[in-house]
Amino acid sequence: MSSKKIGILGASGYTGADAVRLLARHPNAEIIALTANTHAGKSMGDVFPHFFMLGLPKLVEWEKVDWSRLDAVFCGLPHGTTQEIIAAVLKANPKIKVLDMSADFRLRDKNTYAQWYGHEHRALELQGEAVYGLTEFYRDKITSARLVACPGCYPTAALLALVPLAKAKLIDVDDIIIDAKSGVTGAGRGLKQNTLFSEAGEGLSPYSVGTHRHAPEIEQEIGVAAGSAVTINFTPHLIPMARGELCTSYVKLKGATPDDLRTALEQAYANEPFVHVASKGVLPQTQNVRGSNYVQIGVVADRIKNRAIVISTLDNLVKGSAGQAIQNMNLMFGLPETAGLEQIALFP
Amino acid sequence: MSSKKIGILGASGYTGADAVRLLARHPNAEIIALTANTHAGKSMGDVFPHFFMLGLPKLVEWEKVDWSRLDAVFCGLPHGTTQEIIAAVLKANPKIKVLDMSADFRLRDKNTYAQWYGHEHRALELQGEAVYGLTEFYRDKITSARLVACPGCYPTAALLALVPLAKAKLIDVDDIIIDAKSGVTGAGRGLKQNTLFSEAGEGLSPYSVGTHRHAPEIEQEIGVAAGSAVTINFTPHLIPMARGELCTSYVKLKGATPDDLRTALEQAYANEPFVHVASKGVLPQTQNVRGSNYVQIGVVADRIKNRAIVISTLDNLVKGSAGQAIQNMNLMFGLPETAGLEQIALFP
Amino acid sequence: MSSKKIGILGASGYTGADAVRLLARHPNAEIIALTANTHAGKSMGDVFPHFFMLGLPKLVEWEKVDWSRLDAVFCGLPHGTTQEIIAAVLKANPKIKVLDMSADFRLRDKNTYAQWYGHEHRALELQGEAVYGLTEFYRDKITSARLVACPGCYPTAALLALVPLAKAKLIDVDDIIIDAKSGVTGAGRGLKQNTLFSEAGEGLSPYSVGTHRHAPEIEQEIGVAAGSAVTINFTPHLIPMARGELCTSYVKLKGATPDDLRTALEQAYANEPFVHVASKGVLPQTQNVRGSNYVQIGVVADRIKNRAIVISTLDNLVKGSAGQAIQNMNLMFGLPETAGLEQIALFP
Amino acid sequence: MSSKKIGILGASGYTGADAVRLLARHPNAEIIALTANTHAGKSMGDVFPHFFMLGLPKLVEWEKVDWSRLDAVFCGLPHGTTQEIIAAVLKANPKIKVLDMSADFRLRDKNTYAQWYGHEHRALELQGEAVYGLTEFYRDKITSARLVACPGCYPTAALLALVPLAKAKLIDVDDIIIDAKSGVTGAGRGLKQNTLFSEAGEGLSPYSVGTHRHAPEIEQEIGVAAGSAVTINFTPHLIPMARGELCTSYVKLKGATPDDLRTALEQAYANEPFVHVASKGVLPQTQNVRGSNYVQIGVVADRIKNRAIVISTLDNLVKGSAGQAIQNMNLMFGLPETAGLEQIALFP
């Protein structure tokens, strides 16, 4: 099978770099364009020295890319700047497949978007066209999509744990508490004081409590599963590790037992290559998925009656971003869904 | 004022060592005995090289200590072995003050003790005599006590956040979810695979979910505050940092607002030297208290109606153990409560 | 090409686990036996939960393995216990290929072995037969070998930097100072106080200065290159990271310039798939090779006249252990040398 | 004794903050002015939340300070901006004591300064007046000084290890190799990509090899000790820890033994409160001094004949900066030299 020709927009960020890491070894992909407007003219080895062993195209400004040569583009640009660039790319080459790893096309409701992102959406038709790229729930739509809005890292972890339970009406969707913990790469490569080693190391900080932009995305999809609008608690914490995300979700049971929850999850993911439900008594931990596209989910009984705890973990840069984008690309090109994605977690 | 003569049992563990760190610079204390049965004969510098600048007594077996020379003893021995040793110490010197940092005397109910620790209590009269050493709630009893059972690190963090709210009936005590995060020193200095650097680093693990022995201690004290038995959710996570503990408590409001909760906490701790309630909008983080005896508590509104989030943080080895023990000792000897304890957090 | 049938002895240690990680995805390998005598009967998921996604054989005692079914065995057992077990394996199946990752067969001189390991070697004929498995220097011998003694992690890093320079007589081999830094996995998975997270984290410790067992291995091979016995300085430091090793080697020049050193290294490794010489001005760092089989080497001029600094880095569990063993296995079976080993470093 | 009134310039940086941490608990000091021009108007709790328990003056612009009210000023401003500000301060209040923690007055030779800092010195008379603030070597001069140029963190660690040996002519000063390792706070609080948690964590990077500005400072002082100009090797490495510095110095012996070196150091520091020479066989580690003003030095025999290894460690923000400045302030005011500085290392 000939290789698909790939461009990566925003290759100087962490999600862009993880897309490079995976695509450079993908059996059916060839990276032929890399953009990073503030680093145009540099080699990737200048901005990410761990790519010293790869021959990669130089970084260019996105405006310089010849879109007609590309089969697919991965977009790791900041939220807000993405929508207009993707509109331009699709105008230049309407057949190109777009894997957007930003938040720009994840929310279906234009008002919700405007409320959380502070401005009207600037590519409304594309917002309508975009498919939410949580592979396990939207596989069919993704397969035939042109533009896939890959979910945020937290939503992927939370939704894989909760959607099957909401769908099966095993839990009360009006009483979902998601205590979320993320490694520091989740904050990106931009320079911020709170992500300096000396600030984030050896300590633990809750942040954006009640205001994190992944909350409406989670509510949107649990709402779809439940058939009604929901409001959730979503409380993120910054953890002194580079990669990894773990959601501890506290749920109220609706006539179900914790074992029923586990069974429902096992059934939902019985044929999924990347989502594993842990046996009773086994607790997921981020170490188990670091650097991999795998997700691990476990269910534990709560000491409070009629409550349970659902724990889910993934690598925020892989299944939480670049890996899931590649999984979707595989579907869109009719490739084996797992192609290029079967790396085992790097532990220790 | 003449110095109080102090012995530390179990000086080769982390709580023992932090007691040494603080007491060696305490203006009214003199360390004259250190025990560690498996290291008897060694100097403290052999087992904790960061004490190279101190002249300290050699480690001896606890049976070798002349209790009549001591005014107070700090006990950092493992759970279970403590009760008989303390009984022997008090028999040898009934006037000695005992600051127990183990779990042996924390639970008042002998059945609860037996259920959670797997054996009958072996010093029942002392269990009855012991005062629960959460300074802010039991100051009067501590002042006149002979044996103080210093609380666990998690209970101190959780109870300081929740007891004033339970007492004031602002929250539903049957729906308390405590998502707890601890640094690795919480697991002690014993050799365990999961606390190796290569295992605990760069990752995050829930552990003892539903089975952690600090749960009954929290329930006991919230029950006292509420006037009825309660069952709570307590879900601990191991975080890749050495020190620090943060509890994110999710509570259901009983006709109160999040601001009411903050006000109640501010009133409860208005005159407390070590407990600070953060202003609205300020989120506690473990970095703020590392190495110090301070506690920081914050309140945030939940997006779910009638719910709030209470966040509390402390250093598990200081206010969560040795520091609080010294705070209690100061009370017991009529010393200024803050003596030797005003170190500011070490950040970064 | 049919898959080679592989057994891994000592699969519950870190080098064993990294061999599993890589071999489970190797295109020409099938893991059919895993041993760990203290964990016999368990699944690999019990001892390394990050393998949850793999179907692997259960752990058994090494005595239970049917060696006739195996094409190759990787040995990750502790030093000292290995020699007799390998002798037994080769007696049971003389055609099996042995990739030993322990130190047992690395030293060619029996007296040096006895001096550094404290006992006579217990399989002297095999010691004579074993080929030192530093692929880049012994490729031909490895290709036809039955028993390969894969080098230690430090020796691989140091020798790749220094051997070409010693061979070309560009440096004074009697004045080599190797300041070595290693991540904590280098100390293995055994329970030791100094490798606990709370001890090794947030700090830096020199260790085994002047007494580390990798010194004679480095001296042996530099001696071969120089044609005379040498004594080196080798000073290891424990660094708070899990993986990675970096050697900063200080050398005295013999009529050469730092650029001459770089040129000599570039020539030596021009056709090597895994060894890269950094351009002038680029400094190697462990982050560039984490989780990968790559090695990066750089040369910097010293401010002291006639001196230079050679910096080399690798992942101690990959090119420093399991990865190099697989690279050697590929040679021994006539497979492409890079098969299963082209993962890019996991950064961040 | 009445408290000395203190101002801290550059209080929003790490050295400024550590001066606050220590001075806020100093028995003879009162902080009455804090400056940080980019944060003027904020409280210290806004820029360093771990000071929540302190009542501190608001941050102001340095131009707003009334210098006549101050007895001493600590200066934690960036290199280059300091010289003119200090000139202005001393003009406004010629009796004020200045503890400069920047590099501006450390080099005595104006040409060396211009060469390494890229511009002519802008306060040459003050450069002449300034006393190099390595307390142990310049105690008398410091006692009567008005302006003390506190040494860099690396020079303090290196010089305490090497100066007594150079003075006693026990080592060859033309063959000194200093392999230096620093925690990330050494790079300051400014936003740089290489000090982000995700970049600096879990990895190790040499940096500024041959070009670090602490090299001429070390050469200046070894030159003074040796009585002749010297050129040294100084090779810094960035280590994934916040605090701590360790220098592994490789020296050639001049007719001396390693034990002679240790003896010389023991004699040099016999009466020093903060410098400890480790017993034979004991290796210094940064964990032993974290957060403290102590220095630990050890000597080990090299395997290469006539060579030795001298290892020294300190906390870069304490004895490497703010702590040493306070030690000097104590001398300048006739206070006990150890006042406010006897905190024991925070371990773990």
From TrEMBL, chains A, B, C, D:
Pfam family, one: Semialdhyde_dh
Keywords: Amino-acid biosynthesis, Arginine biosynthesis, Cytoplasm, NADP, Oxidoreductase
Signal peptide range in chain numbering: none
Function: Catalyzes the NADPH-dependent reduction of N-acetyl-5-glutamyl phosphate to yield N-acetyl-L-glutamate 5-semialdehyde.
Location(s) in or outside the cell: Cytoplasm
Active-site residues per Swiss-Prot or TrEMBL entry: C153
Protein name: N-acetyl-gamma-glutamyl-phosphate reductase
Main location: cytoplasm
GO molecular function: N-acetyl-gamma-glutamyl-phosphate reductase activity
Family of this protein: Belongs to the NAGSA dehydrogenase family. Type 1 subfamily.
Species, as recorded: Bradyrhizobium symbiodeficiens
CDD domains: AGPR_1_C, AGPR_1_N
Semialdehyde dehydrogenase NAD-binding domain ranges (all copies): 5-145
UniProt cross-references to InterPro entries, sorted A to Z: AGPR (IPR050085), AGPR_AS (IPR023013), AGPR_dimerisation_dom (IPR058924), AGPR_type-1 (IPR000706), NAD(P)-bd_dom_sf (IPR036291), Semialdehyde_DH_NAD-bd (IPR000534)
Pathway involvement of the protein, from the record: Amino-acid biosynthesis; L-arginine biosynthesis; N(2)-acetyl-L-ornithine from L-glutamate: step 3/4
PANTHER family named among the record's database cross-references: N-ACETYL-GAMMA-GLUTAMYL-PHOSPHATE REDUCTASE, CHLOROPLASTIC-RELATED (PTHR32338:SF10), N-ACETYL-GAMMA-GLUTAMYL-PHOSPHATE REDUCTASE, CHLOROPLASTIC-RELATED-RELATED (PTHR32338)
EC code(s) of this entry: 1.2.1.38
SUPFAM superfamilies: Glyceraldehyde-3-phosphate dehydrogenase-like, C-terminal domain (SSF55347), NAD(P)-binding Rossmann-fold domains (SSF51735)
